[in-house]
Amino acid sequence: MISGATNKSIDIVRGRLIPGSYLMENFKSLTANQNLGLAMFNSFRNAIVITILTLLICSIAGYGFEIYHDKGKDLLMSILLLAMMLPFVALMIPLFTMFSKIGLVNSWMALVLPSISTPFMIMLFRQASRSFPVDIIEASRLEGMSEIAIFFRMYIPVMKSTYGAAMTVTFMNAWNNYLWPKVILQNNESITMPMLVANLKSGYSVDYGMLMLGVLICTLPTAVIFFCLQKSFSNGLTGAVK
Amino acid sequence: MQPKRKKMSLQKRHNLIGWAFLIPASLLIFIFCFYPMVQAILLSFKKGMGAAGVWNGIGNYTRILKDKTFRQCLFNTVFYFIIQVPIMLLLALILAQLLNNKDLKFKGLFRTMIFLPCATSLVSYSMIFKSLFAGDGFVNAILTHIGMQPVDWFQNAWAARFVIIIALIWRWTGYNMVFYLSGLQNIDSSIYEAARIDGANGIQQFFKMTIPLLKPTILLTAIMSTSGTLQLFDESVNLTAGGPGKSTMTLAHYIFNISFVETPKFNYAAALSVFILVCVAILSAIQMKVGDSRD
Amino acid sequence: MRRKLVSAILAATVVGSMIAAVPVAAESNDETLTVWCWDPNFNIYAMKQAEAAYQKDHPDFKLDIQENVYSDIETKLITAATSGDYSTLPDIFLMQDYSYHKDVTSFPDVFTDLTDSGIDFSSFSAGKLADSTVDGKNYGVPFDNGATIMAIRSDIVEEAGLTTDDFKDITWSQFMELAKTVKEKTGTPMLTTSGGSELVLEMLQSAGASPIVDGEVKIADNEVLAQAVEVYATLVKEGYMTEYTDWDQYIASMNNGDAAGVINGCWIMSSIQAAEDQSGNWTIVNMPALDDVEGATNYANCGGASWAVSSNCENTDLAFDFLKSTFAADVDLYDDLLVNAGAIASYLPAAESSVYQEASDFYGGQKVYADIVDFASQVPAFDCGAYYSDIRSALTDVVTNVVQNDADITSELQNAQDTVEFNIEG
C-alpha cells in the first residue's frame, strides 16, 4: 500500500511492489481532484467531538451502572444492549425520517447525536469498573468528596488504560463511519476521508496510485493515535494509587 | 437510631445519583435507537411503506420460511460465527498476554502492527486480500511452492468462505486485543508476581489467572463479536460481493440488497432484521447468564 | 489547575464546534442548480463543460456539482423517498440506465416527467432511450453510450495467424473456432470477464430476446437464454475466456496481456487505454451473434447513464432549458467530451461531427468512434422492466452454478425463475 502511493497507476495494476517515484504526481492529482484539506478537517472535527462526548457520556454511565449497581440497573443494561442488535440498515430509514420530521436533516447534530452513546462503550466501562477498588470511593466519601467529584478526580485517572482503549476504538469508528454521514449530510462541504476514498474508486477508470495515496492518508491518523495511546495500556495506575 | 437512618438515606441518595449518571446515555439510546427500532418492528408487520402501509400480520415472517436465499445467507452467517468468533477471541487473548510482557522490546510497534488491520480503510483491506488470494496471488504461489494445488479462492464456495474467515480474523483480532490489554492493566500486577514466585508457568498463568480475571472483558467482547458477526456486512460486500453466486453472502448483506439494490421490499427487510435481533438477543442472554456474575 | 485548564479547553472545543456546525442554509440563488454524479474525469467533467457552455448565454447561471458514488446516490434517493422528505434531493442527478425502471416504478415521486419539457428525445438512439422511458414517459436525458464492443489485441491475434477482420460480424460458433486457434498458437485465452451475468444478458439483448415476455418473467423455458448460458459456460470451460471475480484483477488482465480481448460496454476503453505501451495493438469490432436465432444481431448495450430531474427541483424551467441547450443540442460540447473525457455520445447529431470521424492511433488508425456510434444505432431495444436487478442477480447464480459446479442449465434456470417470482410476489 505504501509503495502503491509512490507508483504510477498502470504499474500498480501490473503488480509492481517496489516503491516508485510518482508520490508527488499522485499527491498533485489527488489534491487537484479532491478537496483533501476539507475532508481531513471534517473527519478530524467529527471524530474528535464524537470521541470526547462518547467517552464522557458512556464512562459516567458505565460507572453508574457498576458502582451503584442493583437489579434495576442490571436490567436496564440488558435492555440497552438490544440497541446494537438490529442491523443498522434497518434503523437507517426510520432514523432519517425522525430527523426529517424535526428538521435536522443535513445538520451536524444529526450526525453526532446518534453516535455518542453506544451500549458497547457503556458496557466497556461497566465491565472495566468491576476492577476499580471500592476502597478508594469509601475513602473519598469519608473525606467529604461529592459523588461527581469522585468520578472526575478519582475514577478517571485510575481508569486511564480503559479510557485509552475506548478512545482509540471510538475515534477509529467515528473516523471510518461511512453510511450514516453519507445519507444524513447532503453537501460536498461535509465530505469526510472515507467518502473521499470511495470517490477515488468510483470512476470508470481508477487511478490506483492516487487511490493508494488516499487510502494511506486516510489510515495514518488512527494508526498514529493508537501508537501514542497504546502506552497507556502498558502502565495502568491501579497499583500506584493503592 | 439516628446514625442508621442517615445511612439508609445515604444509600438511597447514592442509588439516585447512580441513576442520574446513566440518564444522559440511556436517553440518547432510547431516542436514537429504540424509537427507530420500534418503527422497524412495526414495519415488519405491515405491507407497504409510511401512510400507505397496511397491517400484514406475520406475513413477512412466514415468508422467511419459504426464502431459499435467506436459508443460504443464514447458513453462511452462522458458519462464520461458529468458526471465527472462538478462534479470534482466543488469539486476541494470547496476543494480549504476550504483548503485556514488561520485558518485551518494541511492544508498542508490535501492538500497532496488530491493531493496524482494523484501522485500515475497507478499500485497501479488501484490495490487499483480493490480491493475496488472487489466482496468481501470493497464497497460491506459496501453495505451489510447497507442492500443493493452487486454489481458485474466489470461485469456489468453501474457499471463498475460508477467505472471509481469515480476513475477519486478520482484521478484528487486534481490535479485541486492545480491550484485553487495557483489561490486563486494571489487574494488579502483584498478583502475577506472586504467581511467578509460586512457580506458575506462562500457560498456567494464562488459564488460571488471565482468563478468570479478564472474565468481564471476555464477556463484553464475546457479546460484541456475536452481534458483529451476525450483522456482518463489509466483508461480504467488499471481498466477495456475496459470490460465487450467493455462497458467501451474509444476512445483513441480503437485507441491504433487498432494501437498496433489488426491487425494494422494506417490510420484508425489517422482518429479517428483527430475526437477527432475536438471534443476537438470545445468544447474548445466554452469554450474560453464564458470564455476568459478580462473585 | 492543569486538569481544569485541560477540561476547559476540551469543553470549549466541543461547544465551539457545535456552534460552528449550525447548518448553513443552502444558497437560494435562483440561477443555481445542484447536480449529483460520480466521476471527475467523466460525467463531472461533462457537467462542468456544460455549465461553462450554458454560462455564455446565461452569465448568472451556476452549477453546484456534488460528487457521490453511484450506489450512494441510489441509497440517498431511496432513503429520501421512503421517508417522504424530498428536500435533500438535488435538482439533477445522473442515474444508471439499469435502475430507471426499478426506481421510477417504486418511487415515482422522486422524478420529474420530462416528456413535455421541450427536449427533443427523437435525436437520441432508440435503444438507449428505452431505458429511461417508463410507461411511455421520458424520465431521463441520455448521456453516455454503452454500446457493446469487442476489443481485441491485434498483435496476439496476428501471432496466431489470424487478422482482426476475421472477428468482425461473426457468430459464437465461428468465434469458438478462432479462439481455439489463438489458444493453441499463443496459449492466450481470447477473452477476459469479471464474471456475473452481464455477458449473458448482452447476448440475450443482441438476439432481440429478453427475460421478460409480455410483462411476465420468462427465465425458465427461454431457449435463447439457455443458449446464451451455454455459450458462456463453454467459453470458460474450454479456456477461451478467463473469469476474474475481482474488478481490479479483471482490468489488470487486459493491461497485462493475459487475454487477447474483452467484451463490454464501450466505456471499458478508458481502462484499456491506460496501458499506453499497447498503443496501436488494439482493434474494436462488434460482438459475436448467437447461432440459429432468428433476428440475432452483433449488437448489444452494457451500462451507460442518463440525467434525471428530481421532484425537488424548484426551478424546473431552468433545469429543462439547461439540459435542452446542452446535452440535447450542443454538438460542440459532445466533441469536447469525446476528446477530453472519452465520453461517446448517445445524441445522434453529435456523431456526424468531424471529431467522430478522426482516426485513433491507439486503435491502429481505426475510426473507432464512428464505428461505435454505428454499433449503437443497431442495438435492439431491450426492456428488463422493474425487476432487472433481481433478474441480473438470479442469472449470476445460474452462471456461477453452471460454470463452477457443472449444474444443469435447465434446472438452474428454473431455480432462477422461482427466485425472481418469489421476489416479485413479496
UniProtKB/TrEMBL annotation, chain A:
InterPro entries: MetI-like, MetI-like_sf
Keywords associated with the record: Cell membrane, Membrane, Transmembrane, Transmembrane helix, Transport
TM spans (from-to): 44-63, 75-99, 105-125, 208-229
Keyword hit for Coiled coil: no
Domain ABC transmembrane type-1: 40-229
Membrane topology: Multi-pass membrane protein
Subcellular location: Cell membrane
PANTHER family: ABC TRANSPORTER PERMEASE PROTEIN MG189-RELATED-RELATED, ARABINOOLIGOSACCHARIDES TRANSPORT SYSTEM PERMEASE PROTEIN ARAQ
UniProt similarity note: Belongs to the binding-protein-dependent transport system permease family.
This protein's name: Carbohydrate ABC transporter permease
High-level lineage: Bacteria, Bacillati, Bacillota, Clostridia, Lachnospirales
UniProtKB/TrEMBL annotation, chain B:
Keyword Membrane: yes
Annotated transmembrane regions: 16-38, 78-100, 112-133, 153-172, 266-286
Stated family: Belongs to the binding-protein-dependent transport system permease family.
Database matches in Pfam families: BPD_transp_1 (PF00528)
Magnesium found in the keyword field: no
InterPro entries the record matches: ABC_transporter_permease (IPR051393), MetI-like (IPR000515), MetI-like_sf (IPR035906)
Keywords: Cell membrane, Membrane, Transmembrane, Transmembrane helix, Transport
Localization of this protein: Cell membrane
Classification via SUPFAM superfamilies: MetI-like (SSF161098)
Native source organism of the sequence: Jingyaoa shaoxingensis
Name by which UniProt lists this protein: Sugar ABC transporter permease
Residue ranges occupied by any ABC transmembrane type-1 domain in the UniProt entry: 74-287
Main subcellular location of this protein, as a coarse class: membrane
Membrane topology listed for this record: Multi-pass membrane protein
Automatic annotation (TrEMBL), chain C:
Signal peptide: 1-20
Origin superkingdom: Bacteria
InterPro entries the UniProt entry points to: Bact_solute-bd_prot1, SBP
Coiled-coil annotated spans: none
Protein name per UniProt: Carbohydrate ABC transporter substrate-binding protein
PANTHER family: ARABINOSE-BINDING PROTEIN-RELATED, SUGAR BINDING SECRETED PROTEIN
A Pfam match: SBP_bac_8
Keyword Cytoplasm: no
Record keywords: Signal
